[in-house]
Amino acid sequence: MLLNARILPYVLILPVTLFLCLFFIYPFVLVSQQAFGSSEGGWSLDNFREVVDYWKFPISLKNTLLLAAAVVPIQLALALLMATMVSKMEKGRDMVLYIWTIPLGISDLAAGIIWLAIFEQSGFLNSMLNGMGVIDKPVNFLTYQNPWIVFVAIALAEIWRATAIMLVILVAGIGLIPKEYYEAADVFGASKWKQFTRITFPMLRPSLQTALVLRVILAFEIFAVVAALGGTLFPVLMGETYAYQFDLLNSGAAAAMALIILAISIGFTLIILRILRVPKGASI
Amino acid sequence: MTLRSKFTGAVSGIALSCVAVAAQAETLFWSTQAKPVEEAQAMREQVLSGFADGVDYQPNDGGPWITRLNAELQAGSGSIGVLGALHGDYSAMDPATLVDLSDLGAMSSSDTFNNLAKLGTDQMQYIPWMQASYIMAANKEALQYLPEGADIDALSYDQLIAWAANVQEATGEAKFGFPAGPDGLKHRFFQGYLYPSYTNGVVRTFASDEAVVAWEKFAELWSHTNPASTNFSFMQEQLLSGDAWIVFDHTSRLAGAFNERPDDFVAFPAPAGPSGRGFMPVLAGVAIPSTAPDMDAAKALVSYMLKPETQIATLRATSFFPVVDVELPDDLPPSVQAAGAAVAKMSGAADANPGLLPAGLGDKGGDFNRVFVDTFERIILGGQDIRMVLDDQKGTLAGIMEETGAPCWAPDAPSDGACPVE
Q: Over 80: is that where the pLDDT of B134 sits?
C-alpha cells in the first residue's frame, strides 16, 4: 500500500512522538501537578517556598553552578584538543577513540567509587605518596576541613568520566568539515593555530552546540559522583532532590526541586544556543 | 500460516500459565532488611527454606521499597505478600493499608514492642520480627589507652572523650569513628544516646541548657574523631581497615568486623551522661499489605517468622536478635555473641535510660531525623553557635510535632497532646 507522500513523514515520526508523550510529556505533567499542588488541594507555590527557604538550598545551588562552571570549560578544551588529535591520526584512530571513551561506559556511581578508592585514607594516592616517602602516615583528603580538595576530587572524577561524551560528538563534527578548506588555508600559508581558530572552530559550531547543551544539562544533574566522593559535605541540587523524595518521602518538594533544575537547564540551553547559533543559510 | 499461529498461541498460553503458577506459588517477601548479598542469601537458604509453600525473598533500599509498595496500594492490586521493614518505615505508612494482625496468635514477648507495633491504633499493624541496638566497639589495641580507673563496660562520656584523646595523643591520629556519612545512622546517636544521656529527653529538651552541654561534649569528642567520618556509613569497614579504633554503630553494621577477625575487637555498652546511659532499641517487623495476593499464605509466613527456630536462624543470618523468648544456642557467630553481651550489659545497667524509637510521626519521620542531622552539620561541621542553632532548629522541630500531633515518648515525660518543645 502506498502512502501519500504528505502523510508519510508524520507516520514515520509517530512512534517516537507517542513514546515521548508517554514517557516524557505525561510524567512531566504529573510532576508539575505534584510540584504546584498542596496538601489542601488546589494550586500553590508552597513546595517551591519550602525547598528554597531550606538553609541548604543556596549552598547546593552555588555548589552545582560552581561545579558546572569549573568542569564544563575544562572538558570543552580537553575534548577539542583530543578530537583534533584523533582526527589527525592516520593509524590506530579507532583504537585510541575506544580507549578514550571507556569511562563513558562506566556508570557515574562506579566512577565516583573508583576516585574514592584513589583519594580515601587507605586509598591509592595515600599508598603512593607513602611509598615515595612524601608523607609518613596516611592523610585524610576528603574531609569537611578540606572543602577544596573535595571539590577538586569531584571535578577530576567528572572530567575523567564525562569528557568523552563531548569528544565523540566533536570527532564526528570534525569529520564533516570538508578537506578543501584546509587545503586552501595551506595554499595561503595559514598556520595550524590559525586553521583551528578560523576553520575548525567555526565549522564545529553545530557540534559544539550539541556537545555543550548535553554536557551542561548533565552537569546540573550531577549526583552519584558527588554522593560517592563528597558524601554530605558537598550538597548539590540533585542530591537534595533525592533526599526529599526518599529520605523525607516528600514528593511535592522533590518535584519542585526537579522543576527548578529543569528551569536552570532550559535557561542555560537557550543561552548556549544563542551564543553558538549558526547564521541562517550558513551550513556545511 | 494458521497452523503456525495456533502453535504460537498454544506455546505462549502455556508459558503464561507457567508464569502465573510460579507467581502464585511463592509468597513475595518485600523487605528493607537483610539487604547485603550474603545476608539475603542466608535469609533464603537458612531461614525461609523451611517454609513449605516457598518464599521469594527480595530485599531493597527504603526508597524503591516504599515506591513499589505505594504503587501496588494505589493500583489496588499487587504481588507483594509480606513486608519486612523497620518500625520507622511502618509508622510512615497509612495504617489502613496494612492488614490487622491482632488475631494471628503470634506476637512478641515484649509488651513495649507489641504496643509500638500498633502504630497508635488499637490493632496490630505489624508483628515485631527482630530487634537490634546500637553499641560501641573498639580495636583491642586501643584498650591500653583507656583512662585510669575506667571500666569499659560502664564508661561515661567524659571517659570516652579522655580515651579518644589518649589514643590520638599516642598514635598521632584521631581514631574515634562516627557514622556521619550519607547512609550513616548518626541521627539515632543523637536521638537515642546523646540526648537521653544528657537531657533525659529528646523533644521537650531539644533546646534546653543541658542540650547545649551535650553538644559541647559532642564537639569535644568530635575533635578526637577521624575527620573522614563524614564519609563513614558502616563502621565495620573502618574497624577492619584500622582507620578507626573506637566506634559507635548499629550492631548489624559492626557484625562484619567481629565475624572476620573475632579476636581483634571488643563490643561494649554506650557511655553514660548526667541523666543515665541512653540507648535505643531497634525494632523490625513483618506486615501484610491490604493488596497481598494470597492472604492465607502471607499470614502463614508471618507466623512462621515468629517461630523460635526461625528466630534463631534469622539471628544467625542477620545478627538481629529474637523478639520472642528463646533459648540461645552456644555456637552463634562471634558478632552475635559480642553484640548480644554488650546489649545485655547496656539494657541491664543500673543507670540504663532507654530512648525509644520516635513514634506517631507518620511520614514526618525523615523530617524529624533531618532536624538532628542539620543541627549536627551546623554546629559540628559548620562551627555555628550552639545556642543559636538550637533555637533556630527548635522552630522546625516544634512545627513537625504540632503537624503530626505525636505525643511524647520515653524518656520525655508524657504529654496530653503533641509533644511540646520547651
A: yes
From the list A116, A142, A249, the residue facing B66 with the nearest CB is A249
Please count the structural domains in chain B.
2
The whole-number average pLDDT for the span B83-87 is: 92
Residue of chain B minimizing CA distance to A249: B363
Cell numbers for B319: 545478627
The reply to whether B63 touches chain A by the CB within 8 Å rule is yes
On average, the pLDDT of chain A sits at: 89
Residue among B228, B241, B242 whose CB faces A143 most closely: B228
Q: Based on the fold, state whether residues B211 and B235 are members of the same structural domain.
A: yes
Confidence label for B1 from pLDDT (cuts 50, 70 and 90) = very low
Q: What is the ipTM of this complex?
A: 0.71
Q: Is this prediction's pTM over 0.90?
A: no
The verdict on B6 and B53 lying in the same domain is yes
Domain range for B204 is 133-281+351-404
CATH topology of domain A58-275: MetI-like fold (1.10.3720)
Query: Cα distance from A278 to chain B (closest Cα, Å)?
Result: 44
Q: How many Cβ atoms from other residues are within 10 Å of residue B63's Cβ?
A: 14
Asked whether residue B272 is assigned to any structural domain, the reply reads yes
List the one residue out of B231, B221, B233, B234 whose CA is nearest residue B175.
B221
- DSSP state string for B382-419: S---HHHHHHHHHHHHHHHHHHHTPPP-TTSPP-SSSP
Rounded CA separation B241/A126 (Å): 14
